[in-house]
Amino acid sequence: MEKKSLEVAFDKLYDKLEGWLNTLIEMIPNVIIALVVFIIFYILSRWIGHVITKMLGKLSKNNLINRLIARALSVSIIMAGVFFALGLMHLDKTVTSLLAGIGIFGLALSFAFQHTATNILSGMIISLRSKIQLGDLIDSNDTFGNVLRVGLRSTKVLNVKGQHVDIPNRLLLDNTYKEFSKTGFRRIDVIGKINFRENLDEIRQKAEERMMNFDFLYKEKTPNFVYNEIHKEKVDFTLRVWMKFTNVDGDYLNARSQCLIELSKLFNELEVEIARDEILYLDRI
Questions:
Q1: What average pLDDT does the segment 47-69 reach?
Q2: What single DSSP character describes residue 136?
Q3: Domain for residue 79, yes or no?
Q4: pLDDT higher than 70, residue 104
Q5: What domain range is 238 assigned to?
Q6: Closest CA to 274 of 212, 194, 185, 197
Q7: Are residues 28 and 94 in the same domain?
Q8: What pLDDT, in 10s, does the model give residues 186-241?
Q9: What does the alpha-carbon distance between residue 285 and residue 282 come to, in Å, rounded to a whole number?
């Protein structure tokens, strides 16, 4: 009885193995076709990745972002090739399981790394659409300095104190920022108060003439000295001087200092009395 049970078991095992072998032989053409399809998709992904990298290079100088986008597209094409090849081998259930697993995995990642994903997407947008370039002088999120790198997650800035500051890309994209490098000039503002009894017209004319002697002047805009308002025998004034653009903040500060020195000399020559308890105010613009 035992012998017959073993023979039946071996027969069933033999039939099963024989069925698998027959199925494998029948699937050989499908496997070959699936392999050829996968190779075609792989070659296509490499070619498209190369083309996309070249195209993005004309839109953005950020090679890291360009490579990331091209690589993501290439991987997507390869995954499509894998799914198509599995379908040719009649492994539809496997494809469905893989897609479901990828969907669940992607959903979990989206919750776990939502800020990181937002920063990466913002970095791509900044790289492709924004005019921010390396070396540009910007003021954003309480940081004033030169752009060192636009990365995937953050933009690195060297501030005027010599510190490296990383600004998350989503904050740079969502919040207002000042960009100083595109106009070709920077403006120096000197703000103060003088007594109303002074010869205001003479002071204005001579102050503007004095400011014309600097080498750093932006020639298309002449210095401008204006009076703003009167308050208790005091007159508010603003002296505006435009200089040729520099992304070195030290050069800007030196130019601003020269304007203040020349204005001080002029006030001494004309014996202009600065309003008591008031100081000249210098603004960074």
A1: 72
A2: -
A3: yes
A4: no
A5: 185-284
A6: 194
A7: yes
A8: 999 988 888 888 888 999 999 999 999 899 999 889 999 999 888 878 888 999 99
A9: 10
* 120 assigned to some structural domain: no
Q: Are residues 251 and 156 in the same domain?
A: no
Q: 69 and 151: one domain? A: no
C-alpha distances in angstroms, 55 versus 51, 83, 131, 268?
A: 6, 28, 17, 62
Picking from 137, 150, 149, 148, the residue whose alpha carbon sits closest to that of residue 177 is 137
For residue 110, how many other CB atoms are within 10 A of its CB?
10
Can you say whether residue 194 is alpha, beta or left, with left for phi > 0 and alpha for psi between -120 and 50 degrees? Answer: beta
pLDDT of res. 209: 92
For residues 113 and 126, what is the distance between their CA atoms, to the nearest angstrom? 20
**pLDDT tens column, 124-155:** 666 666 667 788 888 888 888 888 887 777 88
Q: Residue 96's domain is classified under what CATH number? A: 1.10.287
**Residues 97, 141 within the same domain:** no
Q: What is the CATH number of the domain that holds 170?
A: 2.30.30.60
Helix, strand, or coil here: 239?
Answer: strand
Q: In this predicted model, which residue has the larger pLDDT, 210 or 75?
A: 210
Identity at 24, one-letter amino acid code: L
| Residue 63: CA count within 13 A, CB half-sphere | 0
Find the helix packing angle between 114-129 and 92-112, rounded to 10°.
90
d(CA 78, CA 69) in angstroms, rounded, equals 14
Query: What CA–CA distance (Å, rounded) separates 174 from 132?
Result: 14
Residues 48, 103, single domain; the answer is yes
Q: Name the DSSP letter for residue 248.
A: -
